[in-house]
Amino acid sequence: MTEDIDFEIDAEDLPQRAGERTLGSPSVIVDDLHITYRVFGGRRGGTTQTKTSLLNRAINLGRPDSGPITEVPAVRGVSFVAHHGETIGIVGTNGSGKSTLLRAVAGLLPPTKGRVFVSAEPALLGVNAALLPRLSGERNIMVGGLALGLNAKEVRERTQDVASFAELGDFLYLPMNAYSSGMASRLRFAISTITTPKILMIDEALATGDASFRKKSTARIEQIRDQAGTVFFVSHSLGSVRAMCTRVLWIDKGVLVADGDVDEVCDAYHEFVQGRKDASSGAKLR
Ligand SMILES: Nc1ncnc2c1ncn2[C@@H]1O[C@H](COP(=O)(O)OP(=O)(O)OP(=O)(O)O)[C@@H](O)[C@H]1O
């Protein structure tokens, strides 16, 4: 197991754990959730393919989306209840299903099986939010703001704040494909924090930008977290998870192997990635 654990972020720069906040009512209920991706390609004759008729194969010959379909079970039977007032870290090795789980809770992926109940519209805050490279920063702020539920007037009122938070200067009016990658990710972050959601989902957002922007963005996360009801935080940085979270879910190969106390789960996961323990060692923490 060669998972990298990033301890690079200075603990002093991190938002602190939400402390002894009393838990409120349930905000997210995930009940036996399964997410299976279906992708074109893969081994012909494999066990996960659907049958394509000879005629279809002949018609589709040469098309990139023709051929067998492979099913990738990314989340397998995950169940948990999150409450208002919790900051929940999600840890797991590469490809274990963390982002898929987050996207499913955010309503961006339909469950293959099982159900997700949310008490409010969750907002996914991540550096990977899709923006349109040919549009200016200003137009992207409008598109992003509308997508997050603001109306056009509200977005216009906040545009200068978003632009100055992202340190765009006059680049605000240039197409995003003229931005440096750091500038683009700062803008993504700034857009995704334009509102304060009741359920906030953060996917590796702390990795955004250089050290000074990271400090600023973590302060912004702390501010949002204090106002948001429930925060989910996917990260490979156990330092960040320990500093910020009040509970941790550990996902391995799509299965929830541990759900509980931050230090216990982080310690077990750390030992696991160091190759000292098997993933099943986390089961007792549930
Ligand atoms: N769009 C997709 N189509 C098909 N398979 C996918 C897709 N996205 C993810 N997967 C697969 O689903 C599994 C879970 O991926 P996911 O991105 O959720 O894991 P992760 O824990 O977030 O990984 P990482 O830490 O590398 O970001 C992996 O096997 C991955 O290859």
TrEMBL record:
Keywords: ATP-binding, Nucleotide-binding, Transport. GO terms for cellular component: membrane. PROSITE patterns: ABC_TRANSPORTER_1, ABC_TRANSPORTER_2. Residues 56-278 form the ABC transporter domain. One of its GO terms (molecular function) is ATP hydrolysis activity. SUPFAM superfamilies: P-loop containing nucleoside triphosphate hydrolases (SSF52540). Signal peptide: none annotated. Pfam families: ABC_tran. PANTHER family: TEICHOIC ACIDS EXPORT ATP-BINDING PROTEIN TAGH. Belongs to the ABC transporter superfamily. This is ABC transporter ATP-binding protein.
